[in-house]
Amino acid sequence: MPSVLLTESLAVELGAREPWPVDVKLFQPYDVEQILLPDNANCLAVQAYLKMCGLHFQIENRSNAEFMSPSGRVPFIKCGAFVVSELDPIIAFVGTKGVSLTNDLDNTQKADMRAYMSLINTVLVNAELYVTWCDPTTLNEVTKPRYGSVFPWPLNHIQCWQKRTQVLKKLSILGWAQKSLDEVYSEIESCCNALSQRLEDQKYFFGDRPTELDGLVFGHLFTILTTPLPNNRFAGIVRGYSNLIELCKTVERMYFDRSVPEPST
Amino acid sequence: MGTVHAKQSDAPRSEKLKTHPNPNEDSHHRSQKKRVTLEGIRARVDKIHVDGLGRTKDDIIIETVRELFKAQDFQDVIVGAHTVRSRLEALGCFRNIGVFIDTSSGPDSTPEGLEVTFHVHELKRIVGGVNTLVGNNEGSVVVGLRMPNLFGRGEKLATEYSYGSKRTTGFNVCLSKPLRGKMHSVFSTSIFQHGSEWPPSGYKQIERGLLFDLGFSSAPNVKHNLQWEASWRDLSCLTRSAAFEVREQSGPTLKSSLRHILCVDRRDQPIFPSTGAYFQLTTEFAGLGGNVGFFKNDLTLQGNWPVLNDVVLQGAIQAGFLKRLTNDQIVSICDQFFLGGPLNLRGFDFRGAGPHSDGFAVGADAYWATAVHLYSPLPFLSTRGAFADLFRTHIFVNAGNVGNFNLGDDYHENWKILSKDFRMAYGLGLALRLGQMARVELNYCIPVQIRRGDQPVSGVQFGIGVNFL
Q1: Which of these, B172, B229, B254, B378, is most buried using a 10 Å CB contact count?
Q2: Where do the Bacterial surface antigen (D15) domain residues begin and end (chain B) (predicted)?
């Protein structure tokens, strides 16, 4: 769609002229009764990223956030007249305001960071989608009631079915739909292993300052650890990596602890 | 229909009479023929034949023609035969119907007895067609298939499938069945899906649903429709730049509503009427299940008065009001009222009057619009042929208002609220009739009352549609 690209670049061009406004809102589904594991992970990653940048925003819960989003995926931010969805475009958008977490990194480190981010996006995101929409127990006990909770009968069933069809289509194109649950868990295992080895004993992935990779890892791992699922093996695998758990704790303490005042810019 | 001309037949004892489908035609050449008063002639219908029946069931035919046996004199027979013929036509099972009235013969015949024969041609089992349609920024191909008289009692199955140039698909499957009784009631069930795009409001919509409809008439020209509709509407933004107020409305909603449509049409013709009035009131209550809830009324009133020869004065009012029921039930942008455009408030862009957000029309809970037209045939055309009859020139003034009005009990105050910041435009133009259904208008408009945020069109405006104000 060329028009999307055009407006995207236009948004970036125009957005650069204004500073970060005070009334920025982040839209996401209701996190208590509605949001699903993959969406929650993405929302938390964006929240962590914006907080790491020291940018102020308000969270707005909307039951139709997914449909309001221009890309069809949550979360998205409304910044003045601009609506930007998902982490990568938001990072680019924030970059136009002159805010970046990666200024101190050299090119090799930046490429390294990109590689790990795409590892998460290809492995963890798909694994979350798989567990949420393909595992029958999770699908029936968690996904369907939660996803359908905002729709009246019989729309809840129709929407669930429609969404599941979409996700399955995506997963089968990526070759994930045919995998067994054990294969998926071993994929998660190797992904966590890679992340853990890269982190070693550092505070963050690249030294003492957080980057978007830390935000993304926090978003996914924290959600996996804290979301109650009928099958807890997912969280169990992550718990095996103590340095990753430590990272989650650090990010939570630094940026999400309500008792500590928010870091100022 | 007091008199009917009788053709002199060669056969001395059988007076063959043929009723004409249009009684008005008779009056032209009636004067040259011999007048016979029929009210005095006693007559009785002995037998009724219906020729050409195939799959149509007998009971429904007997029901339809039975009334004819009640005839007392010859006029009753003629009038009765005429009504029966139109009722047979209304069944929608037959192509053409001929009526013959003859004196009855045979052992059971009575002295004043008559035999009435209806010659009918049943429609084929399947009728189909392919059309192209251009509208709403999209061209589409429509494939239609009808199965008239499906089970022999006037049931009809109509299916339509459309595929648009923007890859939208729409379909409509409708099964209808006429019910017995005096109310001419028809019950129909439809399943539908159609997509529509509304660039002035920045959203597009896919609507899928189920509709049950019971149509009946309580008096001549007074039609009612009782409907229950369940529709699943999927709204999404047309562009990335759509107003956030519109974006907030995206997502699926489910509406389950009861609707009553009352329609009284006493005009002489639907397009370019010269006399008569038209009234339509739609009342809709949504909120029986689903997550959409409102109570909505929409009124259309039109009156036509001939002024001079062929010059017609037309006055029309449209008004609508939507009431929200509870806070947890949604009223979507597609349920709201909009005003502006060549079909209602000329002199404004389509949906160009009323509340806007970032240039996109967001609609309101109430509106009213009124128009006065003076129609006349094309000037300088003395010969009034069929071609010139397709055109009318008109001058018009139209005014209206749309907004979220806070009405109270004080009528004076209410009137003040409703008339505050109203919009008005006047102009003149040419209207062209397309069959008896649609019309095309080319107007020169001069908007005189414009409000902030409106999108007026001063100059030439083109409009095509079915229902014009």
Answers
A1: B254
A2: 149-468
